[in-house]
Design goal:
Layout: H1 6-13, H2 52-60, H3 66-69, H4 74-99, H5 113-133, H6 139-163, H7 167-187, H8 195-220, H9 233-263, H10 270-298
Length: 299
């Protein structure tokens, strides 16, 4: 959950569409070579003579917008993000009650919490790289990734909340607050995303991912009483704060990539990829807050 390779792909591929949205509109009212309205090829009656009033009406028609030309819009990204986030929530809530040790609904399978946790974590991590490196936007894979993230979130959340009551609520509030804060800070220019900062962030995120994978292995071997090589105390807090900072900046990269994709006139299909990236960053941020609050409460 410690890196989001999706937006590196988006940033590279949408560059080919730069200027696409600046091309002259050859629509019903687009002027032709002689300054007269030009009819599109194949339009019925295009070769027939038209009255001055008909020409005037066609000339005054508004050019096609992004929605009509199949280009990416902010609404597309918002709708796809909400749909994917909804899938994550549904499966997270379902998993919570399925494995709930307290048997809130009269049943619970706590022994399945860890298998579901691992399946969701490693499955979603593998799919995230598969999605990022595929040449085409694969919607079924993106939906499957959201399902796996939901399974992971549900299992890890109910486990943490059983051991450290209240940490889930704190992590949710902190995640939503950080999301809003990062968006405002990016929008007003307080936090800037540049090509250099993207490269630095990418290297740090990949390094953090490798560290976390090593730490997971160490935790299963019993290091740090199940916390891994950085254990608890000040070192665990420092590493968790670093994770929160990286995940937070990932949101700024996401916002900037969406903005650049829309400005470049990227195809509408990229809304699925961008929605996937935003949700993945939110999940990453939530997990970092969850770990941080658990360490703080344990101390």
């Amino acid at each position: 959950m410690a890196t989001n390779p999706v937006f590196n792909r988006i940033d590279k591929e949408t560059q080919q569409y730069a200027g696409f949205n600046q091309a002259p509109q050859q629509g019903y009212g687009a002027p032709g070579p002689q300054g007269q309205p030009q009819m599109p090829m194949g339009y019925p009656g295009a070769s027939e003579s038209m009255s001055p009033q008909q020409l005037e009406d066609m000339y005054r028609q508004a050019p096609a917008g992004p929605a009509q030309t199949g280009r990416l819009t902010l609404d597309d990204v918002v709708m796809k993000s909400m749909a994917l986030f909804g899938i994550v929530l549904v499966f997270a809530i379902g998993t919570w009650f399925f494995v709930d040790p307290k048997q809130t609904l009269g049943f619970g399978n706590p022994e399945l919490a860890m298998p579901i946790w691992l399946l969701g974590m490693f499955g979603s991590l593998g799919l995230s790289f598969a999605i990022a490196f595929q040449k085409k936007v694969n919607v079924p894979l993106i939906v499957a990734h959201s399902v796996l993230q939901g399974l992971f979130l549900g299992a890890v959340s109910v486990t943490f909340n059983t051991m450290w009551p209240g940490v889930v609520t704190s992590a949710v509030v902190a995640t939503m607050g950080t999301f809003v804060g990062m968006f405002i800070a990016w929008k007003v220019g307080f936090i800037r995303v540049t090509s250099k900062s993207r490269r630095i962030f990418g290297m740090m995120a990949m390094g953090y991912l490798v560290f976390m994978l090593i730490n997971i292995g160490a935790s299963f071997l019993g290091f740090g009483d199940g916390w891994g090589i950085y254990s608890q105390g000040w070192l665990g807090i420092a590493v968790s704060i670093l994770g929160v900072a990286l995940a937070s900046y990932s949101l700024a990269v996401d916002f900037d990539s969406v903005d650049r994709g829309i400005a470049a006139g990227a195809p509408e299909k990229y809304s699925w990829l961008m929605g996937h990236g935003l949700v993945a960053s939110l999940v990453w941020l939530y997990i970092e807050f969850l770990r941080l609050f658990a360490i703080l409460q344990n101390d």
